[in-house]
Amino acid sequence: MRKTATTAAGAAKATRTATVGIAGALTAALLLLTGCSGGDSGKDDGGGGGDETASGPAPASGELDLPGSITGQRADWNRCSAPTVNQGRAPGAEGPPKALAGTDWECTKVKVPLDYDNPGGKTIDIALIRAKAKEQGKQRIGSLLFNFGGPGGSGVTTMPQAADPDYKKLNTRYDLVSFDPRGVGESATVKCRGDDEMDASRAVDGTPDDRTEFAKAEADQKAFTEGCDQRSGDRLRHMTTTNTARDMDVIRQLLGDEKLHYFGISYGTQLGGVYAHLFPKRVGRAVLDAVVDPTKSEVEGSLAQAKGFQLALGNYMKDCAKQAKCPTGKGGAEGTKRITDLLAQLDKQPMKTQLGRELTQGDALTGIASLLYSKETWKYLTQSLQKAEQGDGSYLLLFADVYTGRDQQGNYNNENEAHAAIACADTTERYAEADVRKQLPRFKKASPIFGEMLAWGLLGCSGWPAKGEAKTPEVSAPDAAKMLVIGNTGDPATPYEGAANMADQIGDSAVQLTYEGEGHGAYGQGDCVTTTVDDYLLDGKVPEDGKRCS
User: Fold this and answer.
1) According to the UniProt record, where is the region Disordered (predicted)?
2) What is the C-alpha end-to-end distance of the chain, expressed in Å?
């Protein structure tokens, strides 16, 4: 869901890191409560496996005029561990994670200009991770660059979790590559708050019912933006999607590829569209799955999400009603009332948990929303709501922790801060309390469960210390190679209509594929979609525009 603030109102994220990573993280989180977790720490085998890749062809004249210190870089790849999405890094930790014995993953960093208007000035490092193609020589196509969403999601942590088994077939002929976009993870990290401050912020009521609650939420937002300015202010205006797309072209050169082969999911579709607009002649085979609508304002985009999450919740409740002891009863009005009653109870009195912290209304909403991203996690939503009915908020709080990037030791990754930096750099839209109150009736009508949270989330860029770039992204690329644009009819976070709008904005190079099903993202949801995408990426077979899968 849309998110820029770190208050409960900001628990809504614009898009979310690909479901493939979320489902695994949520499953692991549940094991912590049931006492079944375990694992090996592994030992550093000294790195090794160093590999240098020569820079590829320079960009076409007029696209980017970069100094030789950028275009002439060589990648020094070294073996590294496959970190988990929610592992957390120790305060002050620097450099790549330690290598694990037997790992196939390699890491490196590439330098890019902080400011592309001054390409010879200050540079920042962008962290990359890859798994080499299993087949080399003529069978190897090149690199396939992934962005799994966010904005603010770490590709370095998500890629290893997604690669096997989800992208195992693609790894036969492609090097699977991902990266931490600028501001994210190990790439020019944006920081705004400490871990204790993040915990305190989540306790603030982000859907204020009175002036006192609003004053606390407003103060929390002010503290957040001031923290971003103090800790990361000199780089905030450079955290745009446009600049990340330019970084991707530098990455393309470093990888030695004439064309960029790309797989973007969720926010990654917006990033891919912007890249195609800037570098249409550099587009190779590109898949955009779970598509962000490039035509909508912040208000209309958030409103569409409210409808999308309400639709997904309704579909969950219909499915849940088939089983005994469903916590949302027969669904429909009954199910909605049960959830609104739970949220009203939490608004008055947070619920105890086994985690030593209380479940608030905001965290309950976040936990519920996180479990709607995939049909695979609906069973966990049922368990979480059943536990909450019994007075135990542990499950919902744990899933809210995973969603907000908090590990079991209380360490946060920087996804929330990076999300704010990127989202606010990308838009000129800034909203005030009066704007939200004007929109509240529309949002409540769209979703009695999620509407208020998404409406108040519009304040996420209020007081932001840097100006934004544009109201909506420019993605037109009619002269690019054929790009596959995939929409999912049951997607809560990026509603289906966004795919058609993206395809229309891209132009003649867009080919639309529809998946009739649930969840955020279609690839891997069935043979029809998966085979269509694999045939396109591996063999260049472009499907008929408008093809539908179920």
Assistant:
1) 42-101
2) 25
Residue 419 among the catalytic residues? no
pLDDT for 244 beyond 60: yes
**What strands lie across the sheet with 547-549, from one edge to the other?**
51-53, 75-79, 105-113, 123-131, 174-179, 142-147, 260-265, 283-289, 483-490, 510-518, 547-549
Active-site position among 205, 247, 407, 491: 491
The string of pLDDT tens digits covering residues 479-506 is 999 999 999 999 999 999 999 999 999 9
Strand, coil or helix: 265: strand
Q: Give DSSP secondary structure letters for 500-539.
A: HHHHHHH-TTEEEEEEEEESS--TTS-HHHHHHHHHHHHH
- pLDDT digits 0-9 by tens, 366-382: 999 999 999 999 999 99
Whether 266 is catalytic = yes
3-state percent helix, strand, coil for the chain, nearest multiple of 5:
45, 15, 45
List the single range of 5-9, 148-152, 189-193, 334-338 with lowest mean pLDDT. Answer: 5-9
pTM: 0.89
Give the separation between CA 107 and CA 440, rounded to whole angstroms.
46
| Residue 64 confidence (pLDDT) | 81
Q: Tell me the C-alpha distance between 267 and 288, whole Å.
A: 9
Annotated active-site residue 117? The verdict is no
The tokens for 122 are 């200050």
- pLDDT-derived band at 86 (thresholds 50, 70, 90) equals very low
Hey, what CATH topology would domain 104-188+241-293+473-549 get? Rossmann fold (3.40.50)
100, 42 Cβ separation under 8 angstroms: yes
Where in the chain are the domains? 8-28+191-235+296-461, 104-188+241-293+473-549
Catalytic residue among 178, 187, 201, 266: 266
Written as one string, the DSSP assignment of 395-464 is HHHHHHHHHHTB-TTS-B-SHHHHHHHHHHHH------HHHHHHHHHHHHHH-TTTHHHHHHGGGGGTT-
Over residues 178-187, mean pLDDT:
97
Contacts of 109 (CB under 8 A, 6+ apart): 96, 125, 126, 127, 128, 186
